[in-house]
Design a protein that fits this description.
This protein is an all-alpha fold. The protein is built from three helices and no strands.
């Protein structure tokens, strides 16, 4: 005697909901998606070691370039 295999049933019919698209959600400034996107853009980015080193060098060069030598002239009195 052979066994009867289970058959997959179709279940309930799929009902498509008319929800706004992601682009429409991003267009609305109060939606969760747009707030999330804004906060991700504003989030402070972690600099790489190379970028930190470059910034330090640029700051040192800016300090050195901003200091101008001053000539002191002694008056003969």
């Amino acid at each position: 005697m052979s066994r009867v295999k289970k058959k997959r049933t179709g279940g309930q019919p799929v009902i498509w909901l008319d929800v706004p698209r992601r682009s429409e959600k991003l267009a609305d400034p109060d939606s969760y998606e747009s707030r999330k996107r804004k906060n991700l853009d504003k989030k402070k980015k972690v600099k790489s070691v190379y970028d930190k080193h470059q910034d330090d060098q640029n700051q040192e060069n800016a300090v050195l370039n901003s200091v101008k030598p001053v000539l002191l002239i002694k008056s003969a009195s």
